[in-house]
Amino acid sequence: MTTMQLESDLRDSAVSSDVAVIGAPIDIGGNCRGADLGPAAIRHAGLEDALSEAGVSVTDVGDVPVSETGTEPVDAIQSTTAAIADRVAETLQQGARPLVLGGDHSIAIGTLRGTARNAKSGVIWFDAHGDYNTPTTSPSGNFHGMPLAAAHGHRDFADADWSIAPSIPEENTVLVGLRSLDEQERDALRRADVTAYTMVDIDDRGISEIVDEAIDIAASGTDGVHVSLDLDWLDPRAAPGVGTPVPGGATEREAHLALERLAERDADDDVLRSMDVVEVNPLLDDENTTAEAATDLIASAFGNRII
After folding, report:
1. If 0-12 CB within 10 Å is exposed, 13-18 middle and 19+ buried, where does residue 40 land?
2. Which of 247, 252, 268, 270 is the most buried (most CB within 10 A)?
3. Domain range for residue 84?
C-alpha cells in the first residue's frame, strides 16, 4: 500500500465518536491459522451494540489492509503493523480512542507504535504469556510472542523500524496474569524494568488490588495507558477459542472485575488511551463463546455496568 493510498483511507475513515473500531485480521504471527477471523467474530457477537449500551459513541472504520507481499512472514507483519500504527495514530489525532481487534498478538507491534507516536504511553498487558521473546530467543519463532520485546527495543529489535522505545517505557509496562514463560523470556523479563504479576499473585492478593497497582504504575507520568487483552489470559473453560490456551487462567468474573476497575479509574482520571483485543480464533471456538466473552469484556472496559 502506498503512503498516498493510506492517507486517503484515513481521511475516508475519519471519526467523531468516542471509540473507533479497527480490524486487524492477521494470523501469520502464530503457528495456528484462524485468528484472522477474530475481528469478524467479535463484531458478529454484537460489539457495536454492547458499546452503545455502555453509553459509548462508536464508529467502525473497517479493517486495515493485510500485506501478503514477500515470502517471509516478517515482511507481511512489518507492512501490516505499519498500517495499523498509522490508523491508530490518526484515530487518536481525531480525538477518538482506538479499539483494535486482532488477529494474533503480533498486531500489538502496530497498536503500540501508533499509540506512542508523539506521546508517552504506559501499557497493561493481560496475557498468559510474556510476549517478550525475540527471533533469536523464541523456541517457536512466532512473532505473536514478541510484540512487547519489540516495543521496548530489545536485542534483535534495537535497530528495527518497529522498535518504539523509549515512548513505551519499561517502568510503565505491567504484565498481569502470567503463567507460561519460555526460559530466555523469563530471564529477559527479570532483567527488564517492568512489573509482572503472575496468576499466583492474583490468587494471593486478589484481582482488584493487582489492577489498581497496575494502573498506578502504567499511568504514572504518561499520556495514558494502552491495554492489550489476549483472550488466553482467561482460563480455557471461559475462552476456549484461542491458539495457545494455558490452564489456570483468570475466571470470567475476575476478568470483568479487572476491566471494570479500569473503567472506573478512566472515568475519574481519563487513563485509557487505546486498546487491542487479540487471539480470538473462531476455528477453535465453541459456538462463538470466546468472541462473545471478548465483546462483553470490551464493554466492561468502556464503562458497562450492571447498575
Report:
1. middle
2. 252
3. 3-164+171-301
Q: C-alpha grid cell for residue 186?
A: 523469563
Q: Specify the DSSP class assigned to residue 119.
A: S
Tell me the pLDDT tens digit for each residue of 136-174.
Answer: 888 787 888 789 998 888 767 656 665 565 589 999 999
Query: Among 27, 36, 63, 105, which one carries the catalytic annotation?
Result: 105
**For the chain, percent of residues with pLDDT exceeding 70:** 89
Q: Where are the alpha helices (DSSP H) in 121-178?
A: 147-151
Question: 3-class SS at 289?
Answer: helix
Tell me the CATH number at 215.
Answer: 3.40.800.10
**Containing H/E element for 254?**
helix 252-269
* Residue 279 appears among annotated catalytic residues: yes
> Binding site for Mn(2+): which residues?
105, 127, 129, 131, 230, 232
- pTM value is 0.92
Instruction: Print the SS3 string covering 162-223.
Output: CCCCCCCCHHHEEEEEECECCHHHHHHHHHCCCEEEEHHHHHHHCHHHHHHHHHHHHHCCCC
Q: How many residues does the chain have?
A: 307
State how many domains the chain has. Answer: 1
In a domain, 307, yes or no: no
Q: Is 230 considered catalytic here?
A: yes
Tell me whether residue 75 is one of the annotated catalytic residues. Answer: no
Binding residues: 105, 127, 129, 131, 230, 232
| Rounded Cα gap, residues 120 and 161, in angstroms | 18
For residue 71, the one-letter residue type is T
